[in-house]
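Q: Given only this backbone (348 positions), what sequence would you predict?
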């Protein structure tokens, strides 16, 4: 199948079958973040690059899989002071309600295998959060997301997480939350994967800026992501076998899609456009998409609308390296996305 893949050398050019172009091998992103414990701070590419998490705090050890109490994840997350939270054991943490995370926390799952079930993580009116190398599976109930980011939350990095099977979203980012990067995550067995801005009435969401890169959207049905108002940079993601569409641009959204691989299954539409009327406007409109260097497989059908109205990521940041889309990128993303069996680095 992958021998039909060719690199797209010009924006807006459909991919044709043939022999693949040779591409130089490139290391994955974040090659140095596992050298020491706190190397994650300020290491994110894209809009979430300022996040320091719990850099300035002590190391807090999760010593129990209980839902609450001293030594639990919930207990550490609600402390007011900065903390770098690590885990001394592996297993499932079944939570009865969302774990609310206070500002300046790192949830560092390296060295163990932690799965959060029942509910998820809530980032509410906080800043400087890093969530790394955790699994989220099986959240039940109304408005239950794997990671819920709202309102007024900023400077967040979510990296190397595996997320599946929640009743609402896997990662939902709404209500003026901004400067967020989602990287190297694996999304699977789910319907409404990622929502960015929840309602056309929420015109304050025009401030939102999100980067999503090197993620694997693995057969999830829709919303990879669905966007209102926000500026969203998608690069080097692999999205396959969606059930409705891959990416949706709704009211006033600006989506820059660069170097991604979109591999269609039975549903072929890559970019969907939903028309809505912003609260302060008289006419309804959809969003804009610019596609550059993307690869489209399996008969994927796509249309980039109003690409010249989309923001330019290079005018916002320069700390990202975009790889050529092709077989090597697909192989890489499948290997590096989601929870990884990596040791907890030393704290020095």
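A: Predicted residues:
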């Amino acid at each position: 199948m992958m021998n039909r893949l060719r690199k797209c050398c010009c924006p807006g050019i459909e991919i044709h079958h043939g022999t693949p172009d040779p591409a130089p091998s490139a290391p994955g992103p974040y090659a140095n973040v596992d050298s020491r414990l706190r190397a994650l701070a300020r290491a994110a590419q894209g809009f979430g690059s300022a996040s320091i998490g719990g850099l300035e705090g002590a190391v807090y050890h999760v010593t129990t899989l209980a839902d609450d109490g001293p030594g639990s994840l919930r207990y550490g997350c609600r402390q007011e002071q900065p903390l770098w939270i690590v885990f001394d054991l592996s297993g499932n943490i079944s939570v009865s309600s969302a774990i609310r995370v206070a500002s300046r926390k790192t949830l560092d799952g390296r060295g163990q295998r932690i799965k959060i079930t029942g509910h998820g993580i809530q980032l509410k009116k906080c800043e400087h959060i890093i969530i790394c190398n955790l699994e989220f599976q099986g959240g039940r109930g109304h408005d239950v997301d794997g990671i819920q980011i709202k309102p007024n939350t900023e400077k967040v990095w979510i990296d190397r997480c595996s997320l599946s099977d929640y009743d609402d979203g896997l990662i939902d980012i709404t209500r003026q939350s901004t400067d967020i990067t989602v990287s190297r995550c694996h999304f699977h067995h789910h319907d409404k994967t990622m929502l960015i801005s929840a309602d056309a009435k929420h015109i304050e969401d025009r401030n939102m800026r999100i980067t999503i890169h090197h993620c694997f959207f693995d057969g999830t049905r829709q919303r990879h992501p669905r966007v209102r108002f926000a500026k969203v940079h998608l690069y080097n993601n692999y999205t396959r076998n969606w059930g409705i569409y891959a990416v949706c641009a709704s009211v006033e959204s600006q989506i820059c899609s660069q170097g991604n691989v979109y591999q269609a299954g039975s549903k072929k539409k890559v970019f969907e456009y939903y028309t809505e009327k912003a609260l302060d406007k008289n006419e309804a409109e959809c969003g804009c998409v610019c596609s550059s260097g993307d690869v489209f497989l399996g008969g994927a059908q796509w249309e980039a609308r109003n690409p010249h109205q989309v923001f330019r990521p290079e005018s916002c940041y320069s700390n990202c390296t975009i790889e050529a889309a092709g077989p090597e990128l697909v192989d890489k993303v499948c290997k590096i996305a989601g929870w990884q069996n990596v040791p907890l680095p030393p704290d020095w």
